[in-house]
Amino acid sequence: MAKRKLLAVFLSICMTVSFAGCGSMDGESPKVENVEKPVVWFNRQPSDPETGAIDYEAVKFNEKTYYVGTDMHQGADLQGRMIFEYINEHGENLDRNGDGVIGYVLAIGDTGHNYSIARTRGIRSALGTSKVNNGEVVADPVVLNLGGAALAVKDGSANVNGKTYKIRELASREMISKDGATWDAGAAKDAILEWVADFGDSIDLIVSNNDGMAMAMFDTWGYKNHIPTFGYDANGDCVAAMLDGFCGSISQRADVQAYLTLRVIRNGLDNVDVNTGIGIPDDAGNVLEETDFYYGESERAFYALNEAVTKDNYKEFLDPKKTYAKVSHQLSKETHPTRKVFLNIYNGKDDFMSQTYLPLLQQYAYILNLDVTFVSGNGHDEASVTQELMPNAYDAFAFNMVKTDNADEYIYILSDK
User: How many domains does the chain have?
Assistant: First the structure.
């Protein structure tokens, strides 16, 4: 991972005195070939779903192409440590059936998504339940592990007030709907009901790769049985439920990510340094702090830094749709004329993308003078997005792919003569 220090990256700057090369003052879009228009991949980094290797052809499509996301490893580590610290503080009260084992179930979002893989690994590493294969923590689901003999995981341990408890992943599953959509809350609801029917008295913790699945399991069974539940995303409903037993989540700093997604596009359209309004102030005073993000030079990526959310600080995160004050200053339309942008989210039913990320994008679009067409995919078919993509109608693009290895489908459309 690159150093957590922004490395300035310079794009070509419009050198003429007039604005002919940067777009006219009345908002009329300049003539630019589709292959030269700004492209931002966000939330789903173009990568191999098996190895996690970055698709450099996609992130280097042209000189105005970047990725915007979150530091998945830092966030995964935060979630894992948060859960382990909770066990150390409350271990005596967690072992509901008194068998000396603190058992947890895990909702996996997408076995082919590098964020999901990182979060599963982060949880297992922190809880001591990880097994390593070829130098990597195994992230495969565990169908059933009541006896602790599963191949993908092992038992961890925690010493609480002089007593040692085993920590065991009892079961885990990729939460996928009948039509193939991943990160599916409905599948998580079905899973917890099945697990409870089979071994409910052994479940001491609910853990999830995201808040949507976690909340489905918490509402269905966890809340009424006082089961500590941990998610990831800091969605508003989960943060509000922290006084009702929802114990922790991780904020991906959607307020920073959404801004970066559109800011990078704005800078590409304006033909200015990509760091404008990010690491250095723009003409309206927008600028991020070094603790908000960092830039990965080799992967051309802006990464937001995550924060743990618990009962101690949940009030700061009760409104996840609120823009970040430091980058909420309106740009002038005279110097930053309105441009048209195509942007999609991979699944309109995903709680984080539709209920948190999208509302933030809508607000930042106004602040940055971007006329954005928002398209929602169905979560399982890339064509649900690409069939809506008519590149000649737009000045820039922001893609949240259904699958991380499908970047070539978008590139083909932009490259088609």
Answer: 2
